[in-house]
Design a protein that fits this description.
Layout: H1 2-13, H2 21-51, H3 55-82, H4 85-108, H5 114-142, H6 148-177, H7 180-198, H8 219-232, H9 234-265, H10 269-292, H11 300-310, H12 315-320, H13 324-352, H14 358-386, H15 389-410, H16 413-419
Length: 425
């Protein structure tokens, strides 16, 4: 009966964006790009260890990537709002493919040096910093507004499964069976394929971005306008503040302290830690898909903040429960709730922020979230000397709901969502 056809419609709702050829190209290119980056994280590790078997060397090279991201993340948004998004996407994919090809050749001929790997990682980070804002701003030009939720959900499922799942897993297998150079070749090839795909994107946005010389502004001016817009828009400002404090609270315990907990409680610490991270990633993918196959909630801001604020509560379980199934379920729920929130957030940026601002707002969001992750990871270690690790996890679970309430009130989220209904009928 009626229930059945509704279910089918909803199942299709999540896939509806794939009907657009531009979106199919973009989705495939992003998938391959994320896969390549995920694989590179593993190839890079083993290439560095083959050259210089020291944690210091690895740390330095890994920092290269976040430095690249960090250095260009804000500029990336300004550029995305000024130039053709399609051209930026093509240029980034082309440059990354070129850099990776050079690395693969150097690696194959055994002339590769440590600084080459570092430079490649830096280039990859910089590429992402230009790619994401352009991609975020390009989507609303490719898809109708009511399909953006589904598109963000598809991408939210694609990112962890390719970037944290398939890419690194395949990277590990390839490097294990052969040697890092072969991994580098596959990374280079995947970027080359992504580059070729993006060449077929239609030129729809190049028609609208014709500006007369009087309208030309400085990069600095553009950036100031973007920051002012965020500061004026209360829901946006407080979501950013809340999101960054969330990154600060959660990231460190999961990446730095969870390995210690697993080592204390379980025999096979490495694979257990891998499973726990996988549960988090799979949760994120499923949360993204579930939210995107539903309608955008009427109280979209309340829903998003509730996902983020309430979704961390299970972290408290990690502190007290030493049962693996409980820990896996807890991280799965954290992943699903956070993933769901991220999909709604991405969709709101594309639907509520003016088209010519999306790049800058997306890059500020990107910048803030990146800025706090290393800080969180740096603080977690020393903090564990002051407080028992289980206590830190209990705090990490309980603090965000309190912060969520503050953000809801300070950001006047209830009024904002009532003033700007985004009902999808």
């Amino acid at each position: 009966g009626a229930g059945m056809s509704d279910k089918n419609l909803n199942r299709i709702r999540a896939l509806r964006p794939l009907a657009s050829q531009d979106y199919r190209l973009l989705f495939t290119a992003v998938g391959i790009e994320v896969f390549g980056t995920g694989m590179w994280t593993i190839v890079m590790v083993f290439q560095v260890l083959a050259l210089d078997d020291s944690p210091l060397a690895l740390s330095a090279v890994a920092t290269g990537m976040s430095l690249g991201l960090f250095a260009f993340s804000v500029l990336g948004g300004v550029v995305a709002d000024r130039l053709s998004k399609r051209r930026i996407i093509i240029t980034v994919q082309g440059c990354t493919a070129a850099v990776m090809t050079v690395v693969a050749v150097l690696s194959l001929t055994e002339t590769i040096e440590l600084w080459h790997v570092g430079a490649a990682s830096f280039a990859m980070g910089a590429g992402s910093a230009f790619f994401y804002p352009a991609y975020s701003a390009y989507l609303p030009q490719v898809l109708p507004p009511e399909q953006l939720l589904a598109a963000n959900g598809l991408e939210g499922a694609l990112r962890p499964s390719m970037g944290q799942g398939l890419g690194p897993a395949l990277g590990g297998i390839v490097v294990g069976m052969f040697f890092p150079a072969i991994g580098a070749v596959i990374v280079a090839a995947s970027y080359a394929i992504a580059f070729i795909l993006t060449l077929f994107l239609s030129r729809r946005d190049e028609l609208t971005t014709v500006t007369s010389p009087e309208q030309r502004t400085s990069v600095w001016g553009d950036l100031r306008t973007g920051v002012n817009y965020v500061a004026r828009t209360r829901w946006l400002l407080w979501t950013l503040i809340f999101g960054s404090s969330l990154a600060l609270i959660i990231q460190g315990p999961i990446e730095v302290l969870l390995p210690f907990i697993t080592r204390d409680r379980f025999e096979d610490a490495e694979s257990t830690f891998g499973f726990l991270l996988a549960a988090l990633g799979i949760g994120g993918a499923i949360g993204s898909l579930v939210v995107s196959s539903l309608k955008l909630p009427r109280r979209y801001l309340t829903f998003m903040i509730a996902c983020w604020g309430g979704g961390t509560l299970p972290l408290a379980i990690i502190g007290v429960a030493d049962n693996l199934i409980l820990m896996l379920s807890a991280l799965f729920i954290v992943g699903a709730a956070t993933g769901a929130g991220v999909v709604i957030w991405g969709t709101l940026l594309q639907r509520l922020v003016p088209l010519d601002m999306i790049g800058r707002v997306a890059s500020l969001d990107f910048f803030v979230s990146i800025a706090f992750m290393p800080v969180s990871i740096a603080i977690a270690g020393p903090l564990s000397l002051l407080l028992p690790i289980p206590v830190i996890f209990i705090i990490a679970g309980i603090a965000p709901p309190a912060l969520a309430l503050i953000a809801m009130l300070a950001g006047r989220m209830r009024e904002s969502e009532m003033e700007r209904p985004l009902d999808e009928h």
